[in-house]
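User: Hello, can you help with two protein structures?

Assistant: Certainly.
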Amino acid sequence: MSQNLLKGKKGIIFGALNDQSIAWKTAEICYQQGAQIVLTNAPIALRMGEINKLAEACGNAPVIGADVTNMDDLKNLFEKSMEHFGGTIDFVLHSVGMSMNIRKGNMYTGLNHDFQHKTFDISAMSLHRVCQVAYELDAMSEWGSIVALTYIAAQRVFPDYNEMADAKALLESIARSFGYHYGVKKKVRINTISQSPTRTTAGSGVKGFDGFINYAEKMSPLGNASAEDCANYCAVMFSDMTRMVTMQNLFHDGGFSFTGVTQAVIEQMEK
């Protein structure tokens, strides 16, 4: 059901690959809530994914390829988006992450450090680039909102999450630091959302994912938050209802982050 939370707003959604992805769901929800959007992903992801279907479902939204490690690509993305919208941008979703070490099966104690640098570049430094390009182009509207997706492994050890835990910690730090500067300049707010483990293409690539998602379900009083739940939360964070929220890491995980143990887990351990 639409409450027109984003009526008249314009935004860029990074990272929609297929209908499992949080970015895909967020684009759908934002459009339903009255927003106009531009979709973007890496050129290779555009070839592999089904983003044109999403674009059609979202009012024939433009699809503009951009490599998040390339400042020229990002500048082109923001300039073309502003041209399409006829003005500045109200919100941005950063839903970007990739780990070559996880893909190659390298354990945290035996990382390929060239791969690790690439992971940081794509999964964390890309947020700084996005913010910096928007800042330099004065592309964001006053009281605009930038949200990046993260995970609680930035604060706690989840061994199989590997180097992505370090990348998410850096991502959250960038959101805080850039959030200060952008807030002072133009009241733009920057936050991260720490989502439950979610059955996306990226999430499912983590070793032992099925067992962990079941554990998280038992450890969360409300259960795991779905991709659609997260999309709804993103829409609220893009809306004027959250204008004074910035530089925060916001847990969206059914209570997992503040639960020590649940009866369901105790019963499972006693079996």
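That covers the first. Now for the second protein you mentioned:
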Amino acid sequence: MPTGVLLTMTVESTRATAPVRIAEDDHWWFHTRTQALFRVLDPIARPDGLVLDVGSGAGNMAHHLARYGQVVGVDNALEPLSVAWQRGYRSLPGDADELPFAANTFDLVALLDIIEHAENDAGILAEAHRVCRPGGLVTITTPAFGWLFSHNDVVNHHLRRYTAPHLRRLLEQSGFRVRFLSYTYFLVFPAAAGLIMVRRVMGTEKELASPDDGAYQVEMEPTPEPLNSILAKLGDWEASLLGRTSLPWGTALLAVGERPPENGTR
């Protein structure tokens, strides 16, 4: 479908079949990421813009990103895209470092746990800058700290983990002005990092099955109740902290960059 046709489709034509909640929303890890995104983006993102979800898969984040306007997805895997189309989402096949969209198109570009999979992470940021409108935003989530790299990263095809200075440098070299940058999963960091270290020392890292590259999502290891609810509540508390400050450590990072307006002012 030509890009111009896709972008002129009415959002109402797709929302009737698109879900408003999916199973992963109840998992504490996804809940924590979503609440952090809301807390950081709500004060600065347009509520009625055009949003690009890069690496959108089956559209698992589309119902959340719709908070900021009409959502268009792009992904290079056809099987999850077919699920997105069945759900009524607007998505195109394409690569993150060669997006099938015109320059200066989107008000918000979402790169949610994408850049750690790519050899050319700088190229992805450059493409995000190209398709982002002046004054528009890019938001990134990605795993943090190379020393936490574990078997879980391997089976999920992660090539690297990032530090805050590294991610800041990537954003700035791509032409974005950093509006927000913080570690996330701050409150669970001691337990998560400790568990990785213990498994590494003991040689008992759990052997996880490699994800199906054609699957519509990588399944997150289930967390039993009441632990899942407790961790989700910690995610809510963390989101409230992110509304006031950046956090000094965590197992992941959340960043928001702005493409400076052409006149140099907001």
